[in-house]
Design a protein that fits this description.
heterodimer, A: Folate-binding fold, 37% strand, B: alpha+beta, Ubiquitin-like (UB roll), 7-stranded mixed sheet, 28% strand, elongated, binds zinc ion
Chain lengths: 93, 1000
């Protein structure tokens, strides 16, 4: 059970949040210009990294805000939390 | 009756005699006993039959690791409990316990015959034998296995006990109240840290608390005396909470731990009632100190499982803590010093004993002490066999060869009535590994140890491999000072003298002249797996410890292999010729000891099992005899049976009334999302498949929402209340997810849009009135509202007052009838409903539930998302291409609608089905085929909705069928268990294709 530091509410139990999968996958601005393969790349392909992963979380039973989390999936340590639209921290590449 | 209670101890209150029943017979013990110690005091060792071979088994240990003494407690249908360890169960007046896993009784057990056919029950026996024929599984094999192997009986009635949950937060949690745990807790608490100390036993102090041996002295006192003093001191610390009878069940990430506190299990029946039985503690601790200690290892030799064979240290605890001796002529078999402490304790109480030591020699002060007391020691000897059926009565020992691989010389036969084994100690690393910690293997004494301690978790004491008391205090203090970043000097001058040394001679499988195939060297007592089974598994090609474990079932019983896992690993390593450290261990999974369901569930039982959502009209439905259906957390009226009607009859009546005159539905549960902002129209354009910009104020429109993969996700009607204000409705079950999804797009993909979403589902109650007479009823309720088709046409919205309360009225229809949905603030919902009913009386206004609603919409071919769709249906699959805008450049899911897969023509598509026999009602979920003769039968699809329509007087169904769009009129078959039903593919709209009734 993680403790997640919501950038708007502070530290809360994981049960208040829902996970939204990999972060920084931008919805293509012009989907109709894309080939099936290009669209499938956006739609289906996720990295599922063992190690440092950038993820989206939603404080669904709290402020309802979406935000980003840097998590090491090998030990579940959350290394950083930042708001939507903010640049991901560079020290975790 | 024999009495093995030979001396008084401070932990047994001999003034409080306690009677209890074991296997139907009455015995006596004392307050302070466990069931196991009381049984042993009465000379009872034989407590079980083994799982596979039904061999007689006795008490082995004094704690959570006990594999044999597993009992059924009580016999009441609601309170009986299986799989309780007699070694942990505190004795109370009136306790009734019985042995498990034996029929008709432990002394005469029919299953014992398995012992003689044991060569036929090797590793993987169940996998190999009970394979074919398949039909035998249900009828022959499984009942047979269950009958002969039954591990206790479950209660058959609801548990009347009360259970509780508690959330707590601490700076420091210390697990285990032995020497190192107590020191750690004291240091933390004295340094102003809010500290919790838990221990699974009734008293603190671990194994040191009952040590009366001069071999360890602290500050010139007996170690037990010194520790009692420490315990007195920590009890005075104000920011230390001590919880005894509390065991950690699981250690999750982020220092989140679950603990079970036993509150009444030790109390007599009449004192248990109406109290909380067990409490689940949900603990968040900033730092965790693991001080869970270690457990003694058995030794693996031929017939090492007879009753009367115990762990050496357990013999010591039964003697010094409970005052009970496990025998009168005891042999201790050891590979290390610790059995000598037991020996000296026994000797002091006048119990005859001797020692068989695997080591060639040993020279610690402790051994010199034993020798000087005249205790006979056989160094370099090994036990090769034991005898005695219901209890051990003698054994054979032989000399070990130089390399320890074989035996040499003559057998020596020794008589005894009890054998203590000590194979050294296994650190309890369960908590460390559960928390995600890794292990290292220490070759010196063949133990797995925590590899590293993190900044928020540390292991101290013998669970960290620090076995000698001499160093343990020093080491613990240093570690805790560093871990908590404090500088505690309390123990600087503590002086410890210990005459015990650490060397041991580890041999996992002890040598024997008898071929292994003919021996019974047990590794897992509870699951009856032997050294032979492990070797066989290796011979058959199993290599991974996880596979060997499952194939031989070693370590898979209720004790989870606490005594067996290390030996299994050791024998695998020796046999395969690899280093034990390279094998890794099996996974230590929570719970550490079994938890009751009650503890896990806590107070969430009965009506508290799940959150229930009721509309404001709920009480009226109850008063009017509604049957309810769960939709998500909502309770929705399902149908309203009258005069003993069954569901079918009620639904036929309700749906006829709705079409012939009028019906009323509580539609309050539909999800409602208030959408406001200057970009609200643009937002709707992006989330629905159809166009919204041109929707006039005061108009309603149906929308279909897709996932980005093009599949239908939700649907509902949205109303434009004003220029920048919409009210969206969603399906009842989908409301929360739709809101999350919309927020997701708004916050992450389109933050530039000026749109605000608010869930208003609970704010409004909705009465939906339909039927040809609905306009007349509305007119009675809202006499000032112009209900003409010109002023208030289909798919439009008006605000009106009911008395002086504002209502939002939508003229929309899910039944195909003229229909109005009246929304009012929830607190007025009940009144609104009653006024509707009153106004509708003269028009036979009939309340109808979800079943009738489903039937009416099915007659019209309207889909229900989640019933006729399953996340694989595109709008086109549903024959709803009309709702997908061709002009809009983009909306959620648009690009996916022309992926190669979504444009396939042989996708499953929504069709209607008419049965050849109009009275035949299809089963929802039934498979659809075209040919039952060629095998395998080609599955074309399945029935999604099916009803008998009273308005058409025939059976109708919706289904999804391969290439459904192109096969109208085709005959298909629904194969059922006893017959095949013939159907014809039809249009999805069965009733009023021209929609005349909407304006009737
Ligand atoms: Zn928040």
């Amino acid at each position: 059970m993680f403790l997640i530091n919501c950038p708007f509410c502070g530290e809360r139990d994981q049960s208040e949040f829902s996970s939204g999968g990999e972060a920084h996958i931008v919805r293509p601005k012009q989907p109709t210009e894309l080939s099936d393969d290009e669209w499938a790349e956006y739609l289906f392909m996720r990295k599922n990294i063992k190690g440092i992963q950038f993820e989206r979380w939603n404080h669904v039973h709290g402020c309802r805000k979406w935000f980003n989390v840097v998590r090491d999936t090998s030990n579940d340590k959350i290394l950083s939390v930042y708001k939507m639209g903010e640049k991901p921290p560079v020290n975790y590449k | 009756m024999p009495n093995y209670r030979i001396h008084k101890t401070e932990y047994i209150d001999e003034t409080k005699r306690v009677s209890f029943k074991y296997d139907g017979k009455t015995y006596f013990g004392y307050e302070g006993d466990t069931l196991a110690s009381a049984l042993l005091a009465n000379g009872i060792h034989l407590v079980a039959r083994s799982f596979k071979y039904h061999r007689p088994r006795g008490i082995v240990s004094c704690g959570a690791e006990e594999p044999n003494a597993i009992c059924q407690i009580g016999s009441k249908k609601d309170l009986t409990e299986p799989n309780v360890r007699a070694t942990e169960l505190e004795l109370y007046e009136g306790l009734e316990a019985s042995s498990q896993n034996c029929w008709p009784n432990v002394k005469f057990d029919i299953g014992g015959i398995n012992n003689f056919i044991s060569p036929l029950i090797p590793a993987g026996f169940y996998y190999k034998t009970f394979m074919w024929p398949k039909s035998f599984w249900k009828k022959v094999y499984e009942p047979l296995i269950r009958l002969s192997a039954g591990l206790g009986k479950s209660p058959t009635e609801p548990d009347p006990d009360i259970y509780d949950h508690k959330h707590v937060h601490y700076d420091v949690l210390v697990i285990g109240g032995g020497v190192s745990g107590i020191i750690s807790a004291k240091m933390a608490a004295k340094n102003n840290l809010k500290t919790l100390l838990v221990d699974d036993k009734k008293t603190l102090g671990g194994s040191t608390i009952y040590q009366n041996n001069e071999s360890v002295k602290i500050d010139d006192k007996l170690s037990s005396e010194w520790l009692k003093n420490e315990i007195q001191e920590i009890k005075k610390l104000s920011n230390l909470t001590i919880k005894t009878r509390t065991s950690i069940a699981a250690y999750h990430g982020y220092n989140f731990l679950l603990a079970k506190e036993n509150l009444t299990d030790h109390l007599p029946e009449e004192k248990k009632r109406n109290k909380i039985r067990q409490r689940l503690w949900k603990i968040r601790a900033k730092k965790v100190v693991i001080a869970t200690g270690s457990i003694e290892r058995p030794l693996v030799f031929n017939n090492n499982d007879r009753p009367g064979i115990l762990l050496s240290n357990s013999i010591n605890k039964y003697l010094d803590y409970y005052g009970v001796t496990c025998g009168e002529n005891i042999i201790l078999f050891t590979n290390n010093d610790s059995a000598y402490e037991t020996s000296i304790s026994l000797h002091k109480k006048g119990i005859k004993n001797l020692i068989v030591d695997l080591r060639k020699s040993a020279t610690s002060e402790l051994i010199k002490q034993a020798e000087s007391l005249g205790i006979k020691i056989y160094f370099n000897h090994v036990v090769t066999n034991t005898f005695g059926y219901r209890k051990i009565n003698s054994l054979e020992i032989m000399k070990l060869s130089e390399d320890g691989n074989t035996t040499v010389g003559d057998k020596i036969k020794l008589s005894c009535d009890c054998l203590g084994m000590s194979g050294g100690w296994t650190p309890m690393v369960h908590m460390h590994t559960q928390s995600g910690g890794k292990l290292n293997f220490r070759d010196d004494d063949q133990v797995f140890l925590p590899k590293e301690n993190s900044e928020d978790q540390i292991s101290v004491g013998s669970c960290n491999g620090d076995f000698d008391l001499e160093n343990v205090i020093d080491k613990t203090v240093n570690k805790i000072n560093k871990f908590l970043d404090i500088d505690n000097q309390d123990y600087q001058d503590t002086n410890i003298i210990c005459s015990k040394e650490n060397d041991k001679r580890n041999i996992w499988l002890l040598p024997n002249k008898i071929p292994l195939g003919k021996t019974k060297c047990f590794i897992d007592f509870q699951n009856d797996s032997t050294a032979k089974d492990i070797k066989l598994a290796l011979k058959e090609g199993f290599r991974s410890i996880e596979h060997v474990k499952r194939y031989t079932t070693t370590g898979m019983a209720t004790d989870q292999g606490k005594l067996s896992n290390m030996h299994a690993l050791g024998i695998i390593a020796d046999t395969a010729g690899v280093k034990m450290g390279s094998l890794g261990t099996t996974t230590f999974r929570p719970p550490f000891t079994p938890l009751t369901f009650g503890t896990l569930v806590g107070r969430n039982v009965g009506k508290f099992f799940e959150v229930v959502r009721k509309t404001s009209i709920h009480e009226w439905h109850v008063e009017n005899n509604a049957e309810f259906e769960n939709v998500g957390q909502w309770k929705r009226p399902w149908y309203y049976p009258k005069n003993g009607e069954n569901m079918h009859d009620a639904v036929q009546r309700e749906s006829k009334a709705a079409r012939e005159s009028s019906g009323i539905l509580d539609a309050s549960t539909l999800g409602k999302i208030d959408i406001q902002g200057t970009d609200a129209s643009e937002f709707l354009n992006r989330v629905y498949t159809n166009a919204w910009s041109k929707l006039a104020i005061g108009k309603c429109r149906y929308g279909l929402m897709l996932n980005e993969d093009g599949m239908v996700y939700d649907d509902g009607v949205t109303t434009r209340i004003s220029e920048n204000h919409y009210l969206m409705t969603t399906t009842t079950g989908g409301a929360a997810n739709v809101l999350s999804k919309l927020e997701d797009y708004l916050q992450t993909e389109w933050p530039e849009l000026d749109v605000y979403l608010t869930s208003v589902t609970d704010h409004y109650s909705t009465a939906s009135i339909c039927g040809p007479n609905s306009k007349k009823i509305l007119n009675k309720l809202f006499p000032n509202l112009d209900l003409s088709d010109e002023n208030f046409p289909h798919m439009s919205f008006k605000e009106a007052k009911l008395e002086n309360i504002n209502c939002r009225i939508m003229r929309i229809s899910f039944t195909g009838e003229l229909s109005y949905e009246i929304n009012i603030e929830s607190k007025y919902g009940h009144s609104l409903w009653k006024m509707c009913i009153e106004a509708g009386k003269e028009f036979n206004l009939t309340p109808y539930g979800t079943e009738t609603m489903h039937l009416l919409r099915a007659e019209k071919g309207f889909i229900i998302v989640g019933q006729d769709t399953d996340g694989t249906m595109t709008p086109s699959d549903l024959q709803m291409d009309w709702i997908v805008s061709k002009k809009k450049y983009d909306f959620i899911g648009k690009r996916s609608l022309y992926r190669s897969d979504t444009i396939r023509e042989d996708r499953k598509q929504l069709v209607g089905l008419l049965t050849d026999d109009p009275k035949e009602i299809l089963e929802e979920g039934a498979q659809i085929v075209s040919d039952v003769k060629s095998k395998p039968i080609d599955m074309l699809g399945h029935v999604t909705s099916s009803y008998f329509s009273p308005n058409l007087n025939k059976s109708i169904a919706l289904a999804v069928v391969r290439s459904g769009k192109t096969i109208k009129g085709q005959k298909l078959i629904i194969p059922m268990e006893h017959k095949n039903i013939n159907v014809t593919v039809s249009d999805t709209i069965f009733f009023d294709r021209e929609n005349k009734r909407l304006n009737a």
